Backbone:
């Protein structure tokens, strides 16, 4: 018999498995609020107009070939990605202190950064928020880091457990790596305020903790690329070092193109160039070099000011639609007099609302109302439309009364 006869069936991914269950449901009014992918008011995936335009330019450009990219990817894409998150006037960029590699979207950027740290950094412990994106633990563990948690979400206030966060980071060993969601925390939608970020920065720098920013939603939380990059820029402004993983999946809608970048901000230019050379040794045996198409689309948009501005308008429209879904859901529950305080729905930001519904209530909503969402009570607001808000409000109302 097969040499793999003893292999057992793996469980479905907690997030992607929701879509598998949704697809199997024959109900006409089923609603998928699971995976964090933007949907229009009509419930359809969105390809940004500016992305279509960029693709058209690429297709029409007869000079383009399909040669291998360098190990670190498209150099101009890397420069433009660093500028996007660090700001055009970033001293770190001007002083050539940033090593950037085009990676396979956010996940690939996190993984390459983790493998680099496991190979070159003296501390192998990474602290991630409790809760965090479900894939974080696996990405870092697979890279050989040991994962610990720092308190982040307070279920009683459905807000930030700021004291717990400071205590846990204060108790971390000197030099420990700390994963920080740059904006729009997944799954809670709870972000520190600017003042709280400043306190976090001071505390981390005083202990020499190494920040690893995960920026998967820049521009998606507030609608402003600069506002959503503020926390990252505060840390980089102090001259310290940090890792930044960027994803263009959500804010450019390039999900399946796997477009992202890892930037390592170093204290000196010669360090950055040596770090960059070592990044190549991590990437070469992993996937050799990154895919050309998606990064070419992103680069075309980022380098052309008209297209960049068009992108900003479309990005804000997506963020605004999500914010209006928050308001509509909150208003619908208020109108129904649904028991409980639902103000967190409009206080939280980004793609997700951490409803506070428990797994039994989620299971009830799936069974009775065909609402598909992760069992931790997270709903992707992008999956809602004005037409479907009443159905969700009915389900939540029934689940809590
Ligand atoms: C915080 C965070 N980091 C990184 C990523 C990585 O995304 P990608 O590798 O697609 O760029 C994601 C994407 N999340 O996927 C949607 C969901 O949670 O339902 C993310 O949320």
Residues:
């Amino acid at each position: 018999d097969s040499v793999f006869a003893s292999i057992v069936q793996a469980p479905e991914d907690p997030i992607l498995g929701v879509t598998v269950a949704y697809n199997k449901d024959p109900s006409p009014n089923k609603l998928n609020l699971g995976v964090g992918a933007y949907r229009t008011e009509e419930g359809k995936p969105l390809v940004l107009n500016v992305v279509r335009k960029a693709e058209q330019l690429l297709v029409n450009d007869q000079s383009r070939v399909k040669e291998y990219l360098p190990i670190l990817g498209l150099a101009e894409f890397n420069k433009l990605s660093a500028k996007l998150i660090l700001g055009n006037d970033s001293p770190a960029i001007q002083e050539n202190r940033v090593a950037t590699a085009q990676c396979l979207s956010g996940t690939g950027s996190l993984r390459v950064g983790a493998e680099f740290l496991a190979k070159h950094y003296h501390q192998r412990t990474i602290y991630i928020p409790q809760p965090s994106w479900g894939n974080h633990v696996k990405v870092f563990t697979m890279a050989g880091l040991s994962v610990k948690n720092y308190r982040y979400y307070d279920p009683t206030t459905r807000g930030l457990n700021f004291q717990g966060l400071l205590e846990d980071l204060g108790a971390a060993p000197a030099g420990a790596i700390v994963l920080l969601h740059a904006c729009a925390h997944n799954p809670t939608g709870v972000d520190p305020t600017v003042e709280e970020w400043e306190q976090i920065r001071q505390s981390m720098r005083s202990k020499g903790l190494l920040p690893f920013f995960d920026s998967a939603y820049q521009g998606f939380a507030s609608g402003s690329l600069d506002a959503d990059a503020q926390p990252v820029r505060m840390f980089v402004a102090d001259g310290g070092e940090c890792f930044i993983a960027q994803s263009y999946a959500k804010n450019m809608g390039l999900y399946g193109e796997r477009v992202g970048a890892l930037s390592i901000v170093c204290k000196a230019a010669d360090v950055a160039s040596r770090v960059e050379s070592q990044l190549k040794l991590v990437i070469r045996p992993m996937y050799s070099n990154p895919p050309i198409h998606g990064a070419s689309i992103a680069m075309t948009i980022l380098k052309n000011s008209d297209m960049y501005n068009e992108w900003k308008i479309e990005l804000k429209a997506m963020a605004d639609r999500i914010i209006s879904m928050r308001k509509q859901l909150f208003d619908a529950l208020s109108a129904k007099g649904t028991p409980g305080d639902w103000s967190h729905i409009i206080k939280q930001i980004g793609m997700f609302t951490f409803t506070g519904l428990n797994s039994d209530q989620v299971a009830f909503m799936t069974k009775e109302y065909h609402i598909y969402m992760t069992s931790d009570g997270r709903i992707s607001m992008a999956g809602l439309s004005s037409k479907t808000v009443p159905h969700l409000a009915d389900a939540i109302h029934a689940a809590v009364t």
